[in-house]
Amino acid sequence: METGDLDAFLHNSHLYHTLIVDEKKLNEKEIIKLAEVLKSNSTLTTLNLANNGIGAEGAKRMAEVLESNSTLTTLNLANNGIGAEGAKRMAEVLESNSTLTTL
Hints:
Blueprint: E1 2-3, H1 6-11, E2 18-20, H2 28-40, E3 46-48, H3 55-68, E4 74-76, H4 83-94
Parallel strand pairs: 1-2, 2-3, 3-4
Helix pairs in contact: 2-3, 3-4
């Protein structure tokens, strides 16, 4: 199942395979909550966070997710201003993550 509703996903994450929350301007609290849910989620395969301005801190949170999540295969972080610091953290995690195929 697919959704663009972050609240619906956060409350029933096990029901969804795709979450598209591009251009929602997610705040830090929402990114933190999303990351916490994703760390233990075993159904989501596609996450589109494009155009949210999550910055380096948001990218670091998503990197933490990739350390423990083994089902996410596609992650879109386009146009989020993650900078060199966020990109470096993502690169470090990708060295050991064998599940993600599209970034």
